[in-house]
Amino acid sequence: MYASTSGKPRNFRLLDELEKSEKGVSDGSCTYGLENAEDDIYMVNWVASILGPHNTQFQNRIYTVKLTCGMDYPKVPPTVVFETKINLGDVVKADGTVDPKKLEILNKWEPTSSHTLLSVLIGLRQLMGRDPHRKSIQPEEGTKYADKKTDSVQVGR
Question: Helix, strand or coil for residue 68?
Fold first, then answer.
């Protein structure tokens, strides 16, 4: 089992995050879970939904996000890719990938209990509610990024 710098083994850390997601510890505006719990014993591939904040161009929309926790997680932040098209300026690249240098939680990532998959999702939602993004014109609702290869990461057993 891979250890994190917080002292808790990687898989235990991810099991804690999975348990919290299943219990619904957030306000429901951000939800997440394993993409394929039966086949992903290393808990690498996650899928999430973010509800757009009120009084923004994102309101009444649901954004689907894929998170990938590599074997160095939580020492290294997850990779975050939007499946649903979104306009967040230079934070999200043309293929839907979130630039870790442009999202504070990823840029200042530390393997602590306060830096989690949920905190990444909350950080994205908060960004949606701030200027200049809150008034940014958004792609047509339900539009997805081009069928780039978004296959789940497979880890050898």
Answer: strand
